[in-house]
UniProtKB/TrEMBL annotation, chain A:
<dbReference type="InterPro" id="IPR036390">
    <property type="entry name" value="WH_DNA-bd_sf"/>
</dbReference>
<dbReference type="InterPro" id="IPR050756">
    <property type="entry name" value="CSN3"/>
</dbReference>
<feature type="region of interest" description="Disordered">
    <location>
        <begin position="1"/>
        <end position="34"/>
    </location>
</feature>
<feature type="compositionally biased region" description="Basic and acidic residues">
    <location>
        <begin position="469"/>
        <end position="485"/>
    </location>
</feature>
<dbReference type="GO" id="GO:0006511">
    <property type="term" value="P:ubiquitin-dependent protein catabolic process"/>
</dbReference>
<dbReference type="Pfam" id="PF08375">
    <property type="entry name" value="Rpn3_C"/>
</dbReference>
<dbReference type="InterPro" id="IPR000717">
    <property type="entry name" value="PCI_dom"/>
</dbReference>
<feature type="compositionally biased region" description="Basic and acidic residues">
    <location>
        <begin position="1"/>
        <end position="23"/>
    </location>
</feature>
<keyword id="KW-0647">Proteasome</keyword>
UniProtKB/TrEMBL annotation, chain B:
<dbReference type="GO" id="GO:0005634">
    <property type="term" value="C:nucleus"/>
</dbReference>
<feature type="domain" description="PCI">
    <location>
        <begin position="76"/>
        <end position="250"/>
    </location>
</feature>
<protein>
    <submittedName>
        <fullName>Predicted protein</fullName>
    </submittedName>
</protein>
<comment type="similarity">
    <text>Belongs to the proteasome subunit S14 family.</text>
</comment>
<dbReference type="GO" id="GO:0043161">
    <property type="term" value="P:proteasome-mediated ubiquitin-dependent protein catabolic process"/>
</dbReference>
<dbReference type="GO" id="GO:0008541">
    <property type="term" value="C:proteasome regulatory particle, lid subcomplex"/>
</dbReference>
<dbReference type="InterPro" id="IPR000717">
    <property type="entry name" value="PCI_dom"/>
</dbReference>
<dbReference type="InterPro" id="IPR033464">
    <property type="entry name" value="CSN8_PSD8_EIF3K"/>
</dbReference>
<dbReference type="GO" id="GO:0005829">
    <property type="term" value="C:cytosol"/>
</dbReference>
Amino acid sequence: MTDVEMKPADKANDEKKKEDDKTTLPPPPTPVEEIKSNTTLIERAVSTLEPRFTNRVLRTLTALRKRVDDTVLRTAIEELYGKGDRPVKKTLLSWLPTGPITTDHSMEVDLSDKSDAPEPVPEAEIYIRLLMLHHLLKEEDTQSKALELAHETVEKMQALNRRSMDAIAAKIWFAVDRAYDLAGELADARPLFLAAQRTASLRHDDEAQAALINCLLRSYIQYNLYDQADKLVSKTTFPVSASNAQYARYHFYLGRIRAVQLNYTEAHTNLQQAIRRAPAAKVAPGFYQAVHKYFVVVELLMGDIPDRSLFRHVVLEKALIAYFDIVKAVRTGSLSQFQTTLSKHADQFEEDNTYTLIVRLRQNVIKTGIRRLSLSYSRISLRDICVKLHLDSEEDAEYIVGKAIRDGVIEGRIVHEKGWMECGTQKSGYGPEVSEVFGRRIAFCLDLHNQSVKAMRYPLNAHRKELAAAEGAREREKELAKEIQDGDLDDEDLGGGDF
Amino acid sequence: MASQLKTLYEELQRAFYAQPSSDLKKCAAVLTQLKIGLIQAGLLLPQGNVNLGDLVVARDILEIGAFSSIRSQDVPSFDRYFSQLQTFYIDYSSSLPPSKREYPIRGLNLVRLLTQNRIADFHTTLENLPADVIAENPFIRHPVNLERWLMEGSYSKVWNAREEAPAEEYKFFVDSLMGTIRNEIASCEEAAYESLPLKDAATLLFFTNQSDLLKYAQNRGWEVNLTASTITFAKKGEEKMEIPKQRLIAASLAYARELEQIV
């Protein structure tokens, strides 16, 4: 297994550790130093063909990009590329506004040393560009500049075509997507992404492929083109080795597509996966909230009521207030309460893109209402059903109850002549389905076990030592056996021996 | 735009707007030639920068094609025209002036999906439309309401709405839609009633005369008692609960194998 699998846990931990380090350790590494050490790591990754080091660098990206500014980037570039007037350095610097360079003494020394040092590998250049992109995207007035830089970087990346660059390239693609998004031209980026996706899949560039598929899905869903998004999903295979963050995103989009297509079971599984794969709630609260909004709605659409504890979660409590109201309305089966809640929070639902899904809940409200009635009455007239559920006419009530019986929502039958509904007893909930559910859970646990075994990493050659020890033991045993055979071992030895 | 295309377009308009009813045969013939012309001019699936005036004409031609295929009851052909129109409605929506036929055609497409019981596609298509259009536009609201009633089971509302179609073309779908809901109701009745008087069954199924009902009952295999004038629905016997041996054995073997790996 590659390092990628381990990333999520590490990522969160690393970041936390980093944060801790920063607060506790007296001299925290300055951003410039960090960039420099990162480029060294990237160089090592390239020279040893070990993607692990690159991944380690990228893990620090989230924390580092917050501390980067013009001066930091400028200084870092100056230090990395030395005093000479190299073309790469020139182009890189042209993206930054001119300003004074912070001069400290160690740097002076560095510069004089490095004036004829070899140029850093192209991967390092792309990494610097990545940092610059994120930096430019932070400010609103530099965003158009970021888009230009993104274009140039992509061209450069494609011209270089180096496999050791894949991991950084994936991050670049994400930044490109963001640049387009902020410029409000997400739709225009599609041809570029589609072409890049094809290339990436041909080159088995898993990281970039995962990032690009997500970018495309995002762009389709942004414009409500669920049909195209669905086609993209069916035509591509999401790389298995993708990082957890990408997986979480992918599952989220897939869940949304399936929910729109009324395939709630699959939507539920996908959204659940997205929640499980997502970074911890406090680290990425936005994603966590967005997924949960859909999760609650889909659970309601499936006829389940979400856990109460969900709405007390620190991160979710505020964001899910509107959804909590909807849940309450569905749970009581009151159509009027549902309608008022819906109109009250309509703006928020539309903003969250869940409005059309929530409108579909209307039938669930009716179903819940009928189920409650069927549980509390053994016989109830259609007229009363009509009044209690706020239906328009008795005629409607008859059809609706009929449909509920056919769909298996309630057990019972209608006596048309008398105009009432007779409710049967509820079936006992024990049958073959139970073993099926049980089987599914066992399968899940076993799969989890197998996956975690697969995801373990072992230090290189660590087994050699053990192997050598085992070899030695076997050797001794053999000798011993031989000695016994030869009869060299006499009673004395045995009595006083170590064996 | 080539002059030949222009004359054909005028011919198509004449045939389509002819009074009292459009000449559908002529339309179909001219449309075939026009489509070839459009392909040659690169307007059927426009790419890049094309003259906006030409695009409007191309859209108009395709819209007439969509309408005339509905009028001649050719649903697959409507489907093709609709997917070709998608480019104009979605990708060029910002640069082209809006077409007054856009929402009727979109609405028709929604009704078509409903009659074919493609509810998932119905919702996917609906997502393309902004919320205020769904709520306000009569052409879209009609199919949306139909779907909601169908899902709830308010079949009588669907039945009553069949006359309220916002455009003539919607009525072409009414018959098949009524067939769909009649089957839905019938399957509900089978589950919900033991027996029904003939008269009530006829009202529930929206039949106006008894012979239609009897024919329908025969098709579905219902027992009709003419002397008592009732319909008895065959109760499906209690489903026997069988132990799924094969599956259980397979599952147990799988557990054994997995456990062996762990231990």
